[in-house]
């Protein structure tokens, strides 16, 4: 049951009987009766005010930061709100002119000509980067062999030259993909910020065609939109890559290209060749057009491993193109052989859903990890379940807030979706995905027992 804020208290009836005039009044009366009967024991965290507006960028040129804040409103018996009072995000201004003084240099220069260290001596100061805390204003006395720390640098100061992190309240923080400093948000393999790899498919295969003649053989089409592309083999053969216009990006026309980085289809292709017979090709993507991966055979093919991640909506057209196109790329080589049809790639779904268990559990602890909240619970009673539940389980709330908020040392009726990764390395109970969490009561117990007898697992 949610908590009512002070501005709503005037609508509550006192703790005695009052004739309801509407369904809403009846609900309010029921809440008042329960609250009065329980002694008004308000528990759980307070509530945040809405976020304020973002401040101006801390820098007039180059990278800086903006900040916004909020306040926690709570009753005396309530816990502190979960989360932070301030959020910081990157802001990008026009590039600084070449002659502009770096921000940290400017802060050190403010102490030039001023007495420090308890004497009347004055010094000229420049940044010193060898001190333990890179977010302290450590400045070296020019012409001397000592440095002095003037406290913290100003918020928004780069942690070190060329670093991506910025100093905030004395800590070096990097921005996540959402632009927030210290958010730990990362792009998933599909390119979605904070995603769970569920909007794309993993395509993986080993090309084993032996090849009847020396020359160029088609390995696979790499479709537009592919990410995290990798191909590798161990032989004297050479991988070749052709663009959508029929021109080779590398190793075309019987000429072996040097190892290095190549631009193709809107991404950078890193081509490496070790001293031994190992050769790899990698690209982060996403590709802006189709690419054709080939192999220049000089000896029998021991197998070419390739993989990439493809948006779900592009997999169907890719499969149809691989099977229907007939593989007739524009290739000038006279010794080209008839290409073989591609086999269907292996598609690995990101997660395997398991039927939702329903059980009663007591919350023993909680911890915030990145953008998730992990609850440790003790399973008290299982109503229905197909997969095994341990006596102690972790229940995860994957969101920026711990939703739903579960109070410590309270019993709840939980229906949490269990998700297991294909390789079995991740096994999680998730809220609120297709589930719910309600405070346990004897009435809940009887209703759930009745439903469990009549509803299939």
Tell me what the structure shows.
The structure is a single chain. This protein is mainly beta. The chain has helices spanning 23-37, 103-109, 312-324, 442-454, and strands at residues 47-48, 63-69, 72-73, 86-92, 125-127, 136-141, 147-152, 166-168, 171-173, 200-207, 215-222, 227-234, 238-242, 248-250, 260-264, 267-273, 278-283, 291-297, 304-311, 346-348, 352-354, 358-369, 372-384, 392-398, 411-415, 417-420, 427-430, 436-439. The strands form seven sheets. Strands 21-26-27-24-23-22-25-28 form an eight-stranded mixed β-sheet, covered by helices on one side. Strand 26 (417-420) and strand 27 (427-430) form a beta hairpin. The radius of gyration is 31 Å and the shape is flat.
Name the beta content range: 25-35%
Number of helices: 4
Structural classification = mainly beta
Q: How far apart are the first and last residues' alpha carbons, in Å?
A: 28 Å
Biggest pleated sheet: 8 strands, mixed
Q: Assign a percent range to the helix content.
A: 10-25%
Overall radius of gyration: 31 Å
Low-confidence segments: 1-20, 31-40, 325-354
Estimate the mean pLDDT confidence.
Answer: 77
Q: Tell me the number of strands.
A: 28
Main sheet strand line-up: 21-26-27-24-23-22-25-28
So what's the overall shape?
flat
């Amino acid at each position: 049951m949610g908590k009512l804020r002070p501005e709503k208290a005037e609508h509550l009836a006192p703790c005695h009987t009052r004739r309801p005039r509407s369904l809403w009044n009846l609900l309010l009366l029921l809440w008042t009766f329960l609250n009065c009967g329980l002694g008004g024991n308000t528990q759980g965290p307070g509530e945040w005010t809405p976020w304020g507006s973002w401040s101006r960028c801390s820098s007039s040129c180059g990278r800086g930061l903006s900040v916004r804040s909020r306040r926690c409103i709570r009753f005396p018996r309530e816990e502190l709100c979960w989360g932070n009072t301030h959020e910081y995000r990157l802001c990008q201004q026009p590039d600084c002119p070449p002659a502009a003084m770096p921000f940290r240099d400017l802060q050190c220069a403010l102490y030039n000509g001023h007495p420090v260290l308890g004497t009347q001596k004055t010094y000229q100061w420049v940044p010193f980067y060898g001190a333990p805390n890179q977010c302290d204003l450590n400045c070296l006395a020019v012409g001397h062999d000592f440095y002095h720390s003037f406290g913290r640098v100003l918020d928004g100061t780069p942690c070190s030259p060329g670093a991506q992190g910025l100093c905030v309240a004395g800590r070096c923080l990097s921005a996540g993909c959402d632009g927030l400093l210290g958010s730990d948000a990362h792009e998933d393999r599909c390119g979605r910020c904070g995603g769970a790899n569920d909007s794309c498919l993993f395509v993986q295969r080993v090309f084993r065609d032996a090849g009847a003649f020396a020359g160029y053989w088609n390995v696979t089409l790499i479709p537009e939109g592919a990410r995290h592309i990798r191909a590798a083999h161990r032989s004297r053969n050479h991988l070749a890559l052709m663009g959508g216009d029929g021109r080779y990006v590398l190793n075309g026309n019987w000429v072996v290209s040097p190892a290095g980085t190549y631009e193709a289809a809107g991404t950078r292709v890193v081509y490496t060749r070790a001293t031994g017979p190992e050769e790899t090709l990698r690209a982060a993507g996403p590709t802006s057009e189709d690419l054709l991966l080939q192999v220049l055979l000089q000896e029998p093919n021991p197998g070419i491993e390739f993989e990439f991640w493809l948006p779900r909506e592009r997999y169907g057209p890719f499969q149809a193109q691989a099977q229907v196109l007939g593989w007739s790329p524009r290739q000038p080589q006279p010794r080209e052989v008839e290409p073989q049809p591609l086999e269907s790639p292996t598609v690995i779904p990101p997660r395997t859903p398991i039927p939702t268990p329903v059980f009663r559990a007591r919350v023993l602890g909680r911890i915030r990890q990145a953008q998730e909240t992990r609850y440790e619970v003790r399973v008290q009673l299982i109503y229905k379940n197909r997969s095994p539940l341990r006596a102690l389980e972790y229940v995860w709330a994957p969101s920026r807030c711990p939703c739903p908020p579960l109070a410590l040392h309270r019993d709840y009726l939980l229906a949490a979706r269990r998700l297991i990764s294909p390789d079995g390395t991740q096994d999680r109970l998730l809220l609120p995905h297709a589930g719910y969490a309600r405070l346990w009561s004897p009435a809940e117990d009887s209703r759930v027992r009745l439903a469990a007898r009549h509803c299939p697992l």
